[in-house]
Amino acid sequence: MVLEIGPGTGALTRYLVASGARVIAIELDSNLAASLPGRLGNPPNLTVVEGDARSLDLRPCLGSESNYKVVGNLPYYAANPIIRRFLELDTQPKLIVATLQEEVAHTITAAPGKMGLLSVAVQYYANAHLVCSVPPQAFQPPPKVTSAVIRLDIRDAPAVNVDDPNGFFDLVRAGFSSPRKQLRNSLAHGLGVSTETVGELLTRIELDGSRRPATLCLEEWAIVYRAWLGSSQTADE
């Protein structure tokens, strides 16, 4: 099954339907949602659902389906929450292929050195690849920015082993609270503790506190999280 986000007039939907796959298309615009089946000849393997993919109840769409893919030309304002939503579902898709703003695509697929909170949040769940850039002229009307296609192959298990993903992301969010500062200063600011406290913690795990947050890989963030969790638990005893 293929779940398409934002089919619009059906330029991509037409090919998805022709492949023989069962296609569920989620469209926010009521007029486009109503006209899409007829525009494509009312194919029996197409279901159009009117709604916002950021908040729509997906259970009726997915049913008991556990082997599905997500594709879509995502609105720039909604790309992040839509991608995060599917990654955090109990029943994740096997694959996400999305067109979004090129700047966001580069952030999602960034390697250590240029990573941000979004990079960590997505790559925790998926192997992220930049497929290609898409010039504004490819769309009508053309947007003011260049787009890009990304491919997210969902991992069988998260990239790092942490006991509480929410706690892990809270720690990473704190680490990127002042991304241009050194790690020890940014973490201290985000966690609301002294620089000395963070410095001692980083020294204990042999991580250079003068590095920038963007340089850490996922495993290093996991090491910091485990150390912070351990120190917090010790303080509570």
Low-pLDDT sequence parts: none
Chain-averaged pLDDT: 94
CATH class label of the largest domain: Alpha Beta
Q: Any idea what the CATH architecture of the largest domain is? A: 3-Layer(aba) Sandwich
Shape label? elongated
Q: Can you count the beta strands?
A: 7
- Gap between N and C termini, in Å? 50 Å
Question: Number of helix segments?
Answer: 10
In helices, the fraction of residues equals 25-40%
CATH topology of the largest domain: Rossmann fold
CATH homologous superfamily (4th level) name of the largest domain: Vaccinia Virus protein VP39
Bin the strand percentage: 15-25%
Major β-sheet strand ordering = 3-2-1-4-5-7-6
Concise summary:
Helix content is 39%, strand content 18%. The chain contains ten helices and seven strands.
3D structure, described in words:
- This protein has 237 residues and is α/β, with parallel strands linked by helices.
- It has two domains: 2-154, Vaccinia Virus protein VP39 (Rossmann fold), CATH 3.40.50.150; 165-236, Helicase, Ruva Protein, domain 3, CATH 1.10.8.100.
- It has helices spanning 13-18, 30-39, 59-62, 79-87, 102-108, 117-123, 165-175, 183-191, 195-204, 218-236, and strands at 2-5, 23-27, 46-50, 69-73, 95-101, 126-134, 147-154.
- The protein has a seven-stranded mixed sheet, with helices on both faces.
- Strand 1 (2-5), helix 1 and strand 2 form a beta-alpha-beta unit.
- The chain is elongated.
- 32% of the residues are buried.
- The model has no long low-confidence stretch (mean pLDDT 94).
